[in-house]
Amino acid sequence: MGFGGISIWQLLIVLVIIILIFGTKKFRNIGGDLGNAVKGFKKAMTDEETAAKDQPKQIEEDADFAETKTAEPAEEKEKTADKS
Fold first, then answer.
1. Distances from the Cα of 49 to the Cαs of 1, 2, 28, 36, 58, in angstroms?
2. pLDDT mean by block of 10 residues, the chain; 84 residues
3. Residue 10: which residues within 8 A CB-CB, separation 6 or more?
């Protein structure tokens, strides 16, 4: 007994008929496409995880950049005032 009342022999016969209709090249293409889809999905999941881990770090870097950006004009004003 096989899957849900279907025997192994019935599954093999169906598989042979499908191979005769579509050919083996089509199955290789489908397998490759399916493999690439799984790889892309895994890569997207790991990219999201690393982005989530790096997000707090990015916020801190942005805050540091904002502090230095606002501090520079004040320093430049002092330098220009000293030169005058």
1. 44, 40, 32, 20, 14
2. 77 90 83 91 87 65 56 56 57
3. 2
